[in-house]
Amino acid sequence: MTFKEIVEHISCEIINKGNDFDTAVIENVSAGDMMSEVLVGDEDNRILVTALTTDQVVRTADIVEARGVILINGKRPQTSMKTLAEESGLTLISTKNNMFTTCIELGKLLGKCK
Amino acid sequence: MGSVNNLLFVNDSHEVILESIYTVRVKEAMNANPMRVAPDDTMRTAKNIMKENGLSGLPVVDGNRLAGILSLYDIMACYDNGSMDDKVSKYMSRDVILLEEDMPISFAINYFNKFKFRRFPVINKNKELTGMITARDLTAAMLNNINKQLQKYDKLNMRLSDPDPADIRSDTVIYRQFIVHKYDFENAGKVTSEIKKILKDRGIKQSIIRRVSIAAYELEINLVVHSDGGVLIFQLLPDAIMIKTQDKGPGIPDLEKALTDGFSTASEWIRSQGFGAGMGLPNVKRVSNDFQISSDVTGTEVKIKINLGNEEDESK
């Protein structure tokens, strides 16, 4: 799954195009608002799905080497979060969909659900 | 440095001041039960309350809910364009910037720096107005707290700034010590970024960097969320990485529970910041080859080691 596919299939807005926006291949999804839960997994090439809009999301993404972050329920990043994403070259996307719908759509793109 | 009001400063302040900024809650600094008006009150009523109490702004409250805020400018606009018998709801501003009572006052300081308002309404978890806060309230609360902090500061500072010689191995390649402050969410994670950068520059293997980062980040967050502040010590050795955190209390009442997945003592506000899932220490333990913890009321000490060796060495 690429960012291009995500943007085509999920109604969303790109807030920041990361360094690897055109090249990244996303293989896994971590969804949740608790950052320690995200740190539990050790899958590579992840995208994070969350309603949390603080700097700590970008820092967590950096630690697990996530390719990008999708903010759900139409959430906008806090100014400092957006700045940090720009500085770290991390892709940031906002969708009006809720967590469940977003995960289903990502699951379809990954071929993990029908 | 850096306040437009020349009132308060954050970055290069003394530790005692930083301590106050991150420990004192808005609730402790605010003026509780402030004067207020209702949306249906007249502008004359509002003007009289402001005049009698020497206020430059009033919260407008509908039942228990904050409906808006009325400033001197709104009173002036009413003098120019309307009648003092008009309702407050016609002039109040509805776009109100709020503080929550559980936030540390670092948030209030930022708001005073960022916005030109002289006072901010404070709400509780049920979104009810519980107070108003001015820069003067902040200063008073901080001075009060600084007085208390100073009494115990010297002793603690000595303890934190002197590394225990037993902790430094003779073959240490890099030794770094970082101070982490209570409730400093804005900077939480910076120590980990620094450590990650050191390891990247040294060409350490990616899988090791990730495990060290997870451990460092969880330990750093623990200092911010649960301790009264402390230090994080990082050591790169020829064969391993060691991280030690040491805080000033208040200690972990039940270590066994703290090491259980999902057990958390974090408040609702901390959870709203994305922490307190009860996975912190279990995550640290999971990525470490060696994990030691001790805790009493004077503080908690965590020591971990991650080997630089083969993948087979990775603990599960």
Secondary structure topology:
The complex is a heterodimer of chains A (114) and B (316).
Chain A: H1 3-9, E1 12-16, E2 28-31, H2 35-40, E3 46-50, H3 55-63, E4 68-71, H4 79-88, E5 91-95, H5 99-109
Parallel strand pairs in A: 2-3, 3-4, 4-5
Antiparallel strand pairs in A: 1-5
Helix pairs in contact in A: 3-4
Chain B: H1 15-23, H2 26-29, E1 31-32, H3 43-53, E2 57-62, E3 65-71, H4 72-81, E4 99-100, H5 105-114, E5 119-123, E6 129-134, H6 135-161, E7 174-180, H7 190-201, H8 206-226, E8 230-236, E9 240-247, H9 255-258, H10 268-272, H11 280-287, E10 290-296, E11 299-307
Parallel strand pairs in B: 4-5
Antiparallel strand pairs in B: 1-6, 2-3, 5-6, 7-8, 8-9, 9-11, 10-11
Helix pairs in contact in B: 1-6, 7-8, 8-11
CATH architecture assignment name of chain A: 3-Layer(aba) Sandwich
Annotated CATH homologous superfamily of the largest domain in chain B: Histidine kinase-like ATPase, C-terminal domain
Could you list the spans of chain B in which at least 5 consecutive residues all have pLDDT below 50? 1-7, 312-316
What is the number of helical segments of chain B per DSSP (H or I, 4+ residues)? 11
- How much helix, percentage-wise, in residues of chain B? 25-40%
Work out the radius of gyration of chain A. Answer: 12 Å
Main β sheet profile of chain A: 5 strands, mixed
Kindly provide the name of the CATH class of chain A: Alpha Beta
Order of helices and strands of chain A: HEEHEHEHEH
Q: What this model shows, in words?
A:
The complex is a heterodimer of chains A (114) and B (316). Chain A is α/β, with parallel strands linked by helices. Chain A has helices at residues 3-9, 35-40, 55-63, 79-88, 99-109; strands at 12-16, 28-31, 46-50, 68-71, 91-95. In chain A, strands 1-5-4-3-2 form a five-stranded mixed sheet, with helices on both faces. In chain A, β3 (46-50), α3 and β4 (68-71) form a beta-alpha-beta unit. In chain A, α3 (55-63) packs parallel to α4. Chain A is globular. With 316 residues, chain B is α+β, with helices and mostly antiparallel strands. Chain B folds into two domains: 15-142, CBS-domain (Roll), CATH 3.10.580.10; 163-313, Histidine kinase-like ATPase, C-terminal domain (Heat Shock Protein 90, 2-Layer Sandwich). In chain B, strands 7-8-9-11-10 form a five-stranded antiparallel sheet, covered by helices on one side. Chain B is elongated. Classes of the chains: A alpha/beta (114), B alpha+beta (316). Chain A binds chain B through residues 33-37, 39-40, 42, 50, 52, 54-57, 59-60, 62-65, 80, and chain B through 185-186, 188-189, 192-193, 196, 206, 210, 213-214, 217-218, 221, 271, 273-280, 283, 286.
